[in-house]
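Please fill in the sequence for the structure shown.

STRUCTURE ENCODING:
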């Protein structure tokens, strides 16, 4: 069936996938496509083809995504847009409901694959589709969604991008290696280079993402090169650590005409320290770390006058602070002194992940600069910072979450302060240029 909305690279996988989903029972197909390359449009075309092929005899498709809104809802809308003109040619009138599209006697139901969603009772007799399958919990999918096709033998299609090597999608891809069904392969990959040959502007976009994130950034590798990251690894690669090493030195005080920001990581429990990292903002939002302050023990709120004094001395335009738990009283005590310059950050899985991704991207692209390790002689705080950066570990979790922390028994106070300083630099308004009257 012709689907003119598809590009050549989409058609290359559309036809064999439709053939497999129509004729191979109990099989599981997999598809990798880079981010923003038309995956949802291709999925909508596949669902449309299946609905039209079964419009007379009937049947049901289940299409799930990690969330209903926005992900499954977007898929529903894309499917409606592709289906309606083609259904009219076949003299069919699709009926659209909140989570369902019916075409003749066939229907597709869009569901959330979140662990909190109530999905029991649905059946997939035509096919079971899982979008962004790398972000769906494998155990939840096996318990809640696979049984939907148990009595019907409906094939499944899992698609998305790789993640940590152990996701639902990647396990399925490993099982599909070299296998075929109904005369077609079970696994398909579309590369960003293939997309760029047909859509040159997409190639420009990927190149900008590589420059923004860094060529070895796990996000870039996953979303565009389709390369999974190791489940656990150093937070920063050796290459990124080498790029961080700058030629500047630590300063004893501010210099006229320069802009400064800081990140403050309050002490937690045990032997944690309160660390303030001060950075000089350079063109392109490049951040050069030029000073550290470190305090051990004491009442956190009691540090407020010292921090406020340092902020005034350096003329800090922004100071980001971890305002979680024990850091909340210090943030509250600083607010009267710093006003809008204070940026409290509550650490959650999502916010700490975002800080970690920005730290990785800034290190990979050289937007973060730290005096080189050779300059650490006689500078214990600088030496400690380098030690923590080398030791800090990361792991990838479902939903694009980056978890990072120090190894057991060690600390990441300086790493957190650096991440917060980068956050402060990103929040800095553009410098205003004075213009005289003509």
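FILLED IN BY: designer on duty
SEQUENCE:
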């Amino acid at each position: 069936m012709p689907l003119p909305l598809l590009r050549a690279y989409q058609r290359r996988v559309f036809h064999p996938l439709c053939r497999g989903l129509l004729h191979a029972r109990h099989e599981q197909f997999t598809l990798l496509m880079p981010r923003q390359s038309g995956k949802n449009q291709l999925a909508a075309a596949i669902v449309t083809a299946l609905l039209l092929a079964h419009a007379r005899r009937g049947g049901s498709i289940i299409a799930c995504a990690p969330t209903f809104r926005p992900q499954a809802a977007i898929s529903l809308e894309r499917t409606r847009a592709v289906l309606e003109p083609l259904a009219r040619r076949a003299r069919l009138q699709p009926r659209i409901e909140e989570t369902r599209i019916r075409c003749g006697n066939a229907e597709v139901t869009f569901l959330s694959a979140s662990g909190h969603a109530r999905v029991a009772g649905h059946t997939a007799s035509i096919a079971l589709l899982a979008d962004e399958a790398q972000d769906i919990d494998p155990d939840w999918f096996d318990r809640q969604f696979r049984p939907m096709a148990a009595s019907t033998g409906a094939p499944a299609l899992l698609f998305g991008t790789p993640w940590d090597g152990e996701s639902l999608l990647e396990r399925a891809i490993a099982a599909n290696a070299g296998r075929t069904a109904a005369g077609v392969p079970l696994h398909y990959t579309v590369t960003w280079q293939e997309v760029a040959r047909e859509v040159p502007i997409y190639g420009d976009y990927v190149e900008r993402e590589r420059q923004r994130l860094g060529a070895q950034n796990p996000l870039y590798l996953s979303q565009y090169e389709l390369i999974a990251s190791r489940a656990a690894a150093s937070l920063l690669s050796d290459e990124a650590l080498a790029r961080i090493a700058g030629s500047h030195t630590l300063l004893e005080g501010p210099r006229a005409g320069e802009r400064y920001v800081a990140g403050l990581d309050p002490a937690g429990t045990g032997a944690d320290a309160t660390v303030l990292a001060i950075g000089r903002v350079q063109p392109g939002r490049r951040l050069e770390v030029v000073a550290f302050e470190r305090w051990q023990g004491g009442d956190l709120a009691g540090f407020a006058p010292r921090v406020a004094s340092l902020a005034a001395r350096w003329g800090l335009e922004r100071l980001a602070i971890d305002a979680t738990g024990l850091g909340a009283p210090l943030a509250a005590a600083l607010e009267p002194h710093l006003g809008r310059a204070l940026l409290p950050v509550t650490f959650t899985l999502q916010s700490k992940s975002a800080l970690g991704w920005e730290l990785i991207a800034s290190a990979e692209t050289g937007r973060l600069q730290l005096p080189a390790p050779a300059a650490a002689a006689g500078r214990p705080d600088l030496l400690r910072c380098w030690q923590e950066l080398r030791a800090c570990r990361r792991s990838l979790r479902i939903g694009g979450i980056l978890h990072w922390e120090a190894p057991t028994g060690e600390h990441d106070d300086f790493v957190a302060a650096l991440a917060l300083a980068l956050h402060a630099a990103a929040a800095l308004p553009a410098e205003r240029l004075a213009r005289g009257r003509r």
